[in-house]
Amino acid sequence: MAFTTDKIRNIAVAGHGATGKTSFVEQLLVAGTAISAPATVESGKTVSDYTPEEMENGISIHTSLSNMQWDGHKLNILDTPGSSDFVGEVVTAFRAAESAVILVGARAGVQIETIKLWRRLDRRNMPRMVFINKMDEDRADYDAVLEDLRAKFDLTLVPITIPVGSAGDFRGIVDLIGNTAWMTGSDGESRGDIPDEVRQDVEKYRAQLVEAAAEGDDELTMKYLEEEVLTEEEIHRGITEGLRDDKIVPVFCGSATGGSGIQVFLDFLTWAAPSPAGVTEIMVDQEGNETDYTISADSSLAAMSFKTTLDQFSGKLSFVKILGGILKPDSEFVIDRDGKKFKGGKIYTALGKKLSDADELDAGDIGVIAKIADAHTNDTFHAPNEFMHFRPLQLPSPVYTLAIAAGTKKDEDKLNEQLVRTTEEDKTFAVTFDPETHETVIAGMGELHINTILNRIKASQKIEVETRPPRVAYRETITKSAETSYRHKKQSGGHGQFAEVHIRVRPLNRGEEYDFVNEIKGGSVSKGFIPGIEKGFHEAMEHGVLAGYPVRDVGIALFDGKEHPVDSSEMAFKIAARGALRQAMQQCGPVLLEPVMKLAVFVEDQYLGDVLSDLSSKRGRVLGQDPLGGGIVEIDALVPQAELLRYAIDLKSMTAGTGSFEMGFDHYDPVQGKIAEEIIANSTYEEQEEH
Ligand SMILES: Nc1nc2c(ncn2[C@@H]2O[C@H](COP(=O)(O)OP(=O)(O)O)[C@@H](O)[C@H]2O)c(=O)[nH]1
Ligand SMILES: [Mg+2]
Fold first, then answer.
1. For a substitution probing ligand 1, which of 19, 22, 23, 255 has the most ligand atoms within 8 Å of its CB?
2. Does the pLDDT at position 691 exceed 70?
3. Burial state string for 484-500 with b = 16 or more CB within 10 A and e = fewer than 16
4. What is the pLDDT of residue 686?
5. 256/323 same-domain check
6. What is this structure's pTM?
7. Which residues are within 5 Å of ligand 2 (an ion), measured at CB?
8. Atom of ligand 1 nearest to the CA of 255
9. pLDDT in tens, 619-628
10. Which ligand has an atom closest to residue 133 CA?
């Protein structure tokens, strides 16, 4: 059965690790009769956590897609991992959904990932709801968590449901709009009268709710100011508009393992959560211009692949969101990246790992296309004869890198193939070959992320891999000017080799790389030899005189030279130029340069002191500290890359696993003293040249 765009809801379930997301999704699916009973995460049998690595670790690692029906609507639910190592999966889910529900523990309250997710949603202006989960847990405190949320976030937080009792005494919830209680019993939730003990709370929170609804819409504001009441229909309108415009955040509560708070939440999704109809996506044309594209089933076929996986039985699975038109099994489409044409073949809806045939998927819907071997994450699939490309997922850059090699030479190709394949699926994972260090370098979001990938490759390919910290890409440069001349002369039988160059060398500004001026007047060196001379300079700059690292930011002027009518050649001038520049660099105060990274570290303030002193021991320079509210601090700092090779691991151990960071290359800085001496002493360059 196909659902029209306005009857579809795509919801991302997000939150700090272990707030109960996967358990919550189980309950939604039970209520929607997509499954008959909820499984516990510990049993390894939940719908969402189905990969071997998830069952082994007991946590969600991938975003998994489920679908269910509720009151004439189709809900596509994306359960996301809570660990910052898998933030790429969360971004993926946010891209595919129109709204998100953030789970927060009724005892734990706002945690570090809650804040980071909130900021991510802010950047997208994405409508969001909060579900305060684990109301049955010891020391669960709804009021305190709501207060905590209000203190930390600017948006208007509006309770839609409140608890009846808490911790051991938690018995159900009250739906403030419908004015009914939903009490939990052995056979799930059932409607009942509002218990007297919560009447006062109901009144207090209902007043907040009506006031917030009134703020959603000017007309309602007027009416509320005059009459101080709104009808149920008006409350619905105000909340729906406030949520859609990302001004108010509806707050729910319940217990995922106890199956409480589920019915009201599902009803709410159908009447209040935004559908994909009329939502805009950003399209990029071949010149890079961005335009808005409105999701509509009336357009020609367009879809975006937001996730790719490799299934043992079904082969490659492309998770797509249909943005235009209607996808059918026989639809023809083209992949924007390489222009290759495909016929859809089978299309599916997903319930975790279980795929079911679909007859059609309308614009706004999410589904799976199997066996398109060439499809990658971020591809746009569009109707033949028109080019379309949707803006790719905006993912954070990797923070943890390792050099990698197969255990044995013969497995090298296998390993490389698997690594490259992983980059096509997982856009937060990268692999590069560093021609300078001859290392294959992999990069990801943390140790857990990288280990998950490598364990999968090792198990599926039956190969061993070895990893070690990657070499740092040092550079060399000069600090003063000098003038020098160099003669290359060789007499070996037949005709000899002769060339002489006179050069002036000066340091350039950082980042200017290389500059060459030919100042020769009067033809002491023929024009024809100049390309050979420049080649010689480039060769000399490939390996500096200190430790053999590439040289940069050097300006060279060729102001004189000598040539021989028979013995001079381009080759002879290349050798002379190389010799001249190497000689000059010795005289120009050569120094090592090291890459310095810009770092944003997120920590709870109890760890702030430790993290700051660690940064200073790592030669870091703190640029600022920004309290993000709720005891979470962002530290911005500049730190040499050489000190950060294990930071993804160090930070986790310093902060009991709660800290995380983002980083990117910033600039090169000179390294001096003992540290430079050590790098030079450890350089293997000279040895390599002798082979
Ligand atoms: N007491 C209680 N435990 C819960 C509740 N929801 C989840 N849990 C437990 O919390 C742990 C983490 O749950 P999980 O669904 O994997 O959380 P996720 O990491 O957010 O997906 C599991 O042991 C669950 O059984 C709840 O409402 N009450
Ligand atoms: Mg989970």
1. 23
2. no
3. bbbebeeeeeeeebbbb
4. 61
5. no
6. 0.86
7. 21-22, 60
8. 27
9. 999 999 999 8
10. 1
